[in-house]
Give the backbone structure.
Amino acid sequence: MYVFKYIRPYRWHLIAGLILLFASSLVFMAFPYLAGLMVDVAQGKAGRPMDLTQVGWILLAVLIVQGGISYGRVMLFAQVSEKGIAALRKALYQKLITLPLPFFEQNRSGDLVSRIAGDVEKLYNAFSITIAEFLRQIIILVAGIVFLAITTPQLALIMLLTFPVVVLLAMVFGRRIRALSKQRQKALADSGTMVSEAVQNIQTVKTYTGEWLEINRYGRLIKKAVDISLRYAHARALFSVFIIVLLFGALFFIIWEGANLLQAGKITAGDLISFVSYTAIIGGAIAGLGNFYTDLLGALGATERIREILHTKPEIELNAETEETSTSSISPAKVQGHIRYEEVHFSYPTRPDTEVLRGITLEVKPGQKIALVGPSGAGKSTIVQLLLRFYDPTAGRILLDDKDIREYDLRAYRSHIALVPQEVLLFGGSIRENILYGKPDATEEEVIQAARQANAWEFISGFPDGLDTIVGERGVQLSGGQRQRIAIARAILKDPEILLLDEATSSLDAESERVVQDALDKLMEGRTSIVIAHRLATVRSSDRIYVIEQGRVIEEGTHEELSAIPNGIYGSLARLQFVVSETS
């Protein structure tokens, strides 16, 4: 399996554990022999000068040795499973966090969380328990058959005829069980995704009285998961039925044959007890192989889902040698902030037939503030996303300081840019942690200064815990204006050369908008800034305004120039908004 690469650093623990597993299994095979020997000694037919006390001491010694070996084996396998799977979890998360944005648009968040949690847990169980027990059953099976082959070849022959049939059937059932296991994991992930989405949108659910709608949707997903799980259980049950029928048939035949040998005086009662015990152990090993084999197939199904993520090409490569703790340390040099879009065309990967941008050409000079205005769906946010390199243009190019942005190292390039979006979703930690995201190694004084410049320090200092106040999941314990100011403080701390504002005040009330806009004005001073806005009052002072419609620049100029264009789109919007504002 692909995941064995994460176990390789602990291979000596694994090898030592396998050696102890082999020894433990062989020691275990001594118990049926000692049980038979005890009966023969009690009947005086042991054929050697021993008494029950001596046999008891031997049995006690074997038990102590078995206990010590088993303890060492479990601890060694624990080292392998805990550390190896921890390395897999880290690698999986590292790969996930470095994947491009289209990947997350094509995969639901609940499914991805399920892969990191549920599927990895299946692999953990496989390495901590299932693989060891599977090998243990094989060793017991082989050792038992060898013993029977030495003592009674005819009994061994029965076992040798039984075991290959079981293995062949296991292979047939295995393919079906493996496919059903993968389907089951997918169905459970879908139900988890639905719960996650409902919880995230709980206000919408309650506002639209959608409780029964969500309950019914979840019920349908659970029913689908149950149906697949029952088919999965049905396949396993059929497998178990075959093993039980074949196994017990062989058991009774061996007991019957052994009884005949005892009656003929060819074996002792102790030999018969040993035979029956070994046969039972062999039967248990065969049944155990069936169960553990299906568990391993389930783990293989989980491995395939994990491997899909691990084999997806990331947008950036991270390794221990280039690990960084601060965005400032990955910026080799400052940039001037001169941005040019040259005949940029773009279609989203999920909608390749729909062109969103159709030959966008615009320029932002260093330190200049430009605005993008236009109706919803015109392509304004897409222009910003391309600059952040969330996507690459399908045609044309974007230049930063006369260099194609695709030629920059992606992490270093993004370290020069900060984004303040319309809807700020904070991390669920403290205010301090959220501000420090802009510069993880910033000092306390720098954090406080950034909060002051963002007009956030007043409300932060009013909290009993100050910067250590927990904001709640996605920042729900703060108001929209407070979240925006935390985001602005984060951007100030990052100190970027390029600032992107995507309708950063459109969802705020008048008072919050005034405070936030004042903070944004401070933030934009001396920086190349691109502002997306529907409220034209916030962009009147822009050095240049671009009017976007249906993916094209249809007007450009200053506020005064655009307002003077007869029947111009910007002028019409401006007159409408400002007249309404004055009337209000």
